[in-house]
Amino acid sequence: MHCVTLTKGVPDFREGQVSFDEDGHLERGDTPTVMNPNDEPALRAALQTKIRNGGTTSVMSMGPPGYGDVLREAMESVYADDLYLLSDREMAAADTWATAITVATGLKRLEPDLVFAGFKTADGETGHTGPQTAWCLDWPLVTHVVALDVDADEGVLRAKRLVEGDVDEIETVEAPLPAFVVADPEFDPSYRKAAHRLKHKDLREETRARAQNHEDHLTVWDHEDLNLDPDFIGLDGSPTIVEGVDPIPRAPAERDATMVDPSDEDAMGDVVEELTQYAGGD
Amino acid sequence: MTETDDYEHYEAVVVGAGPGGAAAAAVLAQQGVETLVLERGVDAGSKNVSGGLLFAEESAPYTLDDLFPDFREEATERPVTESYMHNVAGDQVHTIDLEDVHEAGVEYCDSVLRRKMDSWLADQVHELARETGGGLLTEVRANGLLRENGEIVGVTCDELDPIRADVVIAADGVNSELARDAGMMNWDEPDDYFQGVKAVVDMPEGAIEERFDVDDGEGASHLFAGDLFDGVRGGGFLYTNDDTLSIGTVFHLDSIADERAEPQQLLDGLLTHPLLAQWLGDDYEELEYSAKLVPDSKKVAHPSPHQGRLLLVGDAAGQMQAQGPIIKGMNHAVSAGALAAEAFVDSRTRGTSSAGDLYEQKLRSEGVMDDLRPARYRASRAVTESDAVSGFTDALVDSFVGRAGVSLLGGTVESLFNSQFLLGMIPDTKTSYVTIPQVLGEELGEPIEGGPSQVEPPDLADRIGDLTYNTDVGNPHIEVLDESYDASGTAVTACPVSAEDFGGGCYRSETVERDGTEERVVSLDTQPCVECGTCAVVADTDWEHPRGGKGVEYEQG
């Protein structure tokens, strides 16, 4: 069983990390790049497959050469055996379509049995790249996966999908391998055998050592390696036109705030009085 | 690992990664037995509490440093080389040097903190067991026995599918769910148990050496008895760790229940006693509050701790020796665990006797059972613990004649307390815990030096607030079966994280109106539970441990 997990480096949007200029535009240079947090369910699903079904796991990403930390983090999460980075000036500024073409070409090289992707990136948030990549590969696409069981002998996967509606429903589907899986944030790996959990511990130790020298396990491919025409990838291959970027306006403050010093007993008494009327649980 | 009917099979499954489980697993793995260890805590030691002294006895068949190289360097705190007993009466104290009994037959005695010790042991055990195809897993709770045609064939777990095993070694503690599933231990009698509560207290650098007058790398043990615990039967202890103190109290659970005593208040009584001011200084910083139920081996050490493939080890088998002021548990668990493992290996190679029978024989031939259930105690108990006799001796010691006798004894008291023979006969009555120490303090005591204590222990709400919990929301592990105050009200006081007039604990009492009449009932919130098991004994509950990785997580232990 060979699994590939797709991941992306995104700005670290956490408080204290992210930096915006006066106009509310992201200051890319001052904001660190981290692994897309929404890829974690995909990594968990790939890890579960590696532990329960054996085989090797790779991580693939497309981006600038400085993605080392992102790939190392992904390697540690999924206990990956090797890393692939699709990196080239010609690939830069790609929209989801050009990205899908590029990534699908890289995946075909590896001939995996399963590809895992997160449900969206934390920056673009389109959720398109995974499904478009599956379309390029012409593989079955299973999205919103919350539980997964891979039957290597039968050459199929069985998955539970979270179908959101008025009432959330769980749909059980079966798909032939190779297949493309988009993991839901609710994905819950299941290790009901002691042997699985022991293997998990072993892999954690092994990977920790490997991730120290993750560059030894990294393969970088440019457009020539993948035999891709620059006209169909990167900015030139992107049909999306960005007309403009508007900063997200701050939510207007509709309520007045009164600052109260907690050590001022009289003022605190007023607060309590103010709150008492809501204390009935209404 | 091999699989049969979809269930995994390991040659040996050890439940619980305390010292007993670790010793068992180490011996099994060294003998090439495929061994799986299941620990319910997030880390070994995160569920475990002990007062804190680990004895290695010269006569013991196994000690932890035999089994684990570098154990003392890596996992223990200080070698405890001094031991004192303080008999307190009001503002007087009579101190006895317990050196002889502390050191009698003892190779060494180290103070330990369980999180550090047990997690270190677990790492070693995992490496050893992994070589055999097994290993150690945390956050897995074995919740019962797997049976086939009435025979025990393995364990069931919350987190894993059932597992088959040729031998199941239950080292799952005083509240062992496997021992209960087998019908071998119960929670019926409060007088089968002690309850201990402990505070781990931070010490500034160099303070231990200075305040206890010990060299770097040496430590002291101080025990306390007398009138500082409102007549509740038990005593206090203080042990020096590397840079903390373990200070606690241990009482007979029946006494706590009968007196409606609040364990955390009894502990505070010790912490704020003027006698302790010399060691605690002005800045009291409590790192952790903890509690544990302790089986009294004299009464409940299982004489035949096995059933089919199941072998009980340590607290799960009631193997906890409390003899007078000295409490020994971990060392017996280590011996028992290793002997259980040895028994399984022997039974496999010889094939004549069962592992359980061999284990029982080894416990006897190695003298473990004699320590746990001394014949002297059994012989004298019937007389000394009867109410009439204990009332009489209590009155006698307290009388003019008794006091005169105590005074005349003078220095001889010290040698009496240091007599192993006498300690083996000490009855568990108020006389030995309260009256004698108090009379000693009054008749022979010196005034306690120094002023009143500056120590202000945190209140119960803060103690609970400082503990780490991973609450299993919506899945409480204890259910009160009879909520009437008569049946379960004792839990309100006896539970170490509950108190009368305190709303933030596990148990609360309240008055409700039903059908026009007022009823006093108890209600339960398991969130602050420290999983000691007290309420299972003193109240009417359905009690289980939380699932793997859930519940309280001790940092010190």
UniProtKB/TrEMBL annotation, chain A:
<dbReference type="Pfam" id="PF01012">
    <property type="entry name" value="ETF"/>
</dbReference>
<dbReference type="InterPro" id="IPR012255">
    <property type="entry name" value="ETF_b"/>
</dbReference>
<feature type="domain" description="Electron transfer flavoprotein alpha/beta-subunit N-terminal">
    <location>
        <begin position="23"/>
        <end position="207"/>
    </location>
</feature>
<dbReference type="GO" id="GO:0009055">
    <property type="term" value="F:electron transfer activity"/>
</dbReference>
<feature type="region of interest" description="Disordered">
    <location>
        <begin position="244"/>
        <end position="268"/>
    </location>
</feature>
<dbReference type="InterPro" id="IPR014729">
    <property type="entry name" value="Rossmann-like_a/b/a_fold"/>
</dbReference>
<dbReference type="InterPro" id="IPR014730">
    <property type="entry name" value="ETF_a/b_N"/>
</dbReference>
<protein>
    <submittedName>
        <fullName>Electron transfer flavoprotein subunit beta/FixA family protein</fullName>
    </submittedName>
</protein>
UniProtKB/TrEMBL annotation, chain B:
<keyword id="KW-0274">FAD</keyword>
<dbReference type="InterPro" id="IPR039651">
    <property type="entry name" value="FixC-like"/>
</dbReference>
<dbReference type="GO" id="GO:0016491">
    <property type="term" value="F:oxidoreductase activity"/>
</dbReference>
<dbReference type="Pfam" id="PF01494">
    <property type="entry name" value="FAD_binding_3"/>
</dbReference>
<keyword id="KW-0285">Flavoprotein</keyword>
<dbReference type="GO" id="GO:0071949">
    <property type="term" value="F:FAD binding"/>
</dbReference>
<dbReference type="InterPro" id="IPR002938">
    <property type="entry name" value="FAD-bd"/>
</dbReference>
<dbReference type="InterPro" id="IPR036188">
    <property type="entry name" value="FAD/NAD-bd_sf"/>
</dbReference>
<feature type="domain" description="FAD-binding">
    <location>
        <begin position="10"/>
        <end position="343"/>
    </location>
</feature>
<protein>
    <submittedName>
        <fullName>FAD-binding protein</fullName>
    </submittedName>
</protein>
<keyword id="KW-0560">Oxidoreductase</keyword>
